Amino acid sequence: MRTIPLGQRGMDQAVVGVALDKGLGQVFVASNDYTHDAAVTTRIDAFDVCSDSLLYTYRLAGESTRLGVDETTSHLLVTFAGASDVTGKYYTGLGRLAVLDAVTGRVLHVTTLGHYPSTIAVDTQRRRAFICDDSGPLHLVDIDSGRIVRVVAASDAQGCKDVSVATATARAFAISPERGVSVMDARSGVVTLSRDYDLSYPIALAIDTPHRRAVVAIRTESSCGGVDLLDAATGLLVHTVSLAGDPVDLAVDERVGRAFVVSLDAAGHDAVPILSTTTGTVVKTVRIPPGSSSPRGDQAMALDAHNNHLFILFAGHKTDDTATFSNDKSKRGFTGPGHLVVLDARSGVVRRIMTLSHEPSGVIIDEQAARAFIVDSYDRTLSILDTTRL
After folding, report:
1. What pLDDT is attached to residue 109?
2. E strands, 226-338, where?
3. Which 8-state DSSP code applies to residue 93?
4. Three-class SS of residue 154?
């Protein structure tokens, strides 16, 4: 494993996300530079996936929140938070989406939207991007022009936390703790169905395209969550699967129709129930050896279909969870290293556990180059693994 520092290490810097353009053969890492006497700036580093070498660096004004890529055109999509209030806790200014040429770094257009746009789902077939906002409505944007196609009503997708596109059925699914699940027409953004949850809320989402399923992990107040399997065309409920613990994150293996759900029981033990996306049957439950806290970050799981490996990132233990969102490293309270757990995607056997730095928050796989790229938000590093040697 090779670990590369991203820029100048320090407590006033944080990694935002990682994205891969397989056609270009490049991986991009976005990070924010925070200083006490200047505005926040975003740094985007581009690495060659084969040589692991840094190719170039782009710098943009503003606090980035998420990084995405449109591989059909090699465009980078970067969302930025609006200005915060005097307390620094609430974003009151207007956020924006910037679309860049990934090769030249030229900003093609900028779209003003929301206050804290935080999730990007790219529909390459229809040239659309769905943008979630932590506190506002969801936006559907035309990638080529930057035009806002639709602002989804706050009553349907207010504060959505994740959004995914079922390309084959032309449907988009968004989850929100307040609004449940919203099913939209991927072309127009019109909401076709909404699913509300009274004493529970959706926490994670994945699409199984071949088996026409939207997989939604549900948390409850009783620490016994579950998974809803929805029809990817209609959004109607097909199966509900009960779990012994609360789900934290999930990933789907579309080849065989299996969902992997990282869950945490009342005693604080991690497990990964593996279930069929077609029948809802729990095939196996894998116990994760103790040593790290639950996955932290929005890209904490990734599937290497070529080698049948599932990658799960676990952050190190924290002394103070209230410091999670602080950009000051001295206040974020990590007392130990994080870990990478590699599961055999077919048998569920734990193949390897690797010690990483404190807060591994994003992993992305390039199967063709046989590389796994892992970013750490706390130590601001990029670790590169040869997936054939795990």
Report:
1. 96
2. 226-231, 237-242, 246-253, 258-264, 270-276, 282-287, 301-304, 309-314
3. S
4. helix
